[in-house]
Amino acid sequence: MEKQQIIQIIKEKIIPNRLRSEGLEPSDIGDDDLISERISLDSIDEFEMIMGIEDEFGIDLGSMDQVELHEQFRTMASLANLVEGQLALQLTKVGEN
């Protein structure tokens, strides 16, 4: 899956309600915009995003260092990189079995 596809899925399926509550549409957030400057996320919002990402992409982020995981929530691009990396890791593990 390509980075742009991942970003679109995050914007359109995982956070659309959060965006609309702030008067934004998915297209209002650029790939490299700081998420914290565009929408306000508290720890519960971030947790819900993590759960949504895990469910949507079939990945497990629970084993990641929490500080590192939090840092990946800077931009849509960094979130997409995180998902890409986790998907690639899954493929590697499947290939080893």
From TrEMBL:
Highest taxon of the lineage: Bacteria
Protein name: Acyl carrier protein
Organism: Paenibacillus phyllosphaerae
Domain Carrier: 5-87
Stored SUPFAM superfamilies: ACP-like
Gene3D superfamilies linked to this entry: ACP-like (1.10.1200.10)
Matches recorded under InterPro entries: ACP-like_sf, PP-bd_ACP
